[in-house]
């Protein structure tokens, strides 16, 4: 069966059963559970060190009220990181290429930050919609612009992750197909294409990690404004 | 673990501090003290938090009133030709 380039983004089905739930649960199955031992093994120690360090750095600029979000941010980061990295394996479905999933993560988190801000400190939240020191004639214009930028945030969050991962996977598939097709025809060009594919794969590994981090970092910045 | 000595001076999510610094350094415009603001400027300004809040609420209020007036006017215009034909 000939696959087209977009079949990798189709939701996985098996005999009519959707496997999306399995794809989303896979990262949880791969990570070891924390144990009650005083000194853990190397993997668990590394996992704990990474999560602690990441959470500490992320929550540094946020005040104590925002520290309640520590578990949410760390679990979101691990979830997105593992989904993105697992998706780089050949023939593996990447759930974060689905806009529905990313919007399903972005919109509730963003809305939660806005509601928290409006509920706990409405003056501060409304004051954020007008930058300090704005010249008087520009006040209405800037308020409209800031309001639009506020509502664009969840859209940008979701689409950024989707577009980056989709584009990367598509590029990998295109260049791999090109290298495969060129191999019997022009081996030298195919070799260069394979070098390009290797560099692109390294780039995609970096993009996978960075995009997960950027998603969580931006959410923490939105929280910082409202807490 | 020691924390990084680098601390950002200007909050990443606020352009207000950038605008204030640019006005101060390039144009030598200092933000007025709260006692200098009188009349309407005391309640509607872009320097104090309350002033900014009031500006935002006023802008939203004006936009809401304008939109309501526009849609009601459009509804009246639709109903007026129907009354003429009946």
UniProtKB/TrEMBL annotation, chain A:
Molecular-function GO terms, alphabetical: proton-transporting ATP synthase activity, rotational mechanism
InterPro entries: ATP_synth_F0_asu (IPR000568), ATP_synth_F0_asu_AS (IPR023011), ATP_synth_F0_asu_bact/mt (IPR045083), F0_ATP_A_sf (IPR035908)
Keyword Transmembrane helix appears in the UniProt entry: yes
Membrane topology: Multi-pass membrane protein
Reaction(s) this enzyme catalyzes, per UniProt: H(+)(in) = H(+)(out)
GO cellular component assignments: mitochondrial inner membrane; proton-transporting ATP synthase complex
Superkingdom of the source species: Eukaryota
Principal location: mitochondrion
Subcellular location: Mitochondrion inner membrane
Keywords for the protein's UniProt record, in alphabetical order: ATP synthesis, CF(0), Hydrogen ion transport, Ion transport, Membrane, Mitochondrion, Mitochondrion inner membrane, Transmembrane, Transmembrane helix, Transport
Transmembrane segments: 12-31, 69-89, 101-118, 138-159, 171-199, 205-223
Entries under Gene3D superfamilies matching the protein: ATP synthase, F0 complex, subunit A (1.20.120.220)
Subunit: Component of the ATP synthase complex composed at least of ATP5F1A/subunit alpha, ATP5F1B/subunit beta, ATP5MC1/subunit c (homooctomer), MT-ATP6/subunit a, MT-ATP8/subunit 8, ATP5ME/subunit e, ATP5MF/subunit f, ATP5MG/subunit g, ATP5MK/subunit k, ATP5MJ/subunit j, ATP5F1C/subunit gamma, ATP5F1D/subunit delta, ATP5F1E/subunit epsilon, ATP5PF/subunit F6, ATP5PB/subunit b, ATP5PD/subunit d, ATP5PO/subunit OSCP.
Family statement: Belongs to the ATPase A chain family.
PANTHER family xref list: ATP SYNTHASE SUBUNIT A (PTHR11410)
UniProt-recorded name of the protein: ATP synthase subunit a
Organism the protein comes from: Phycodurus eques
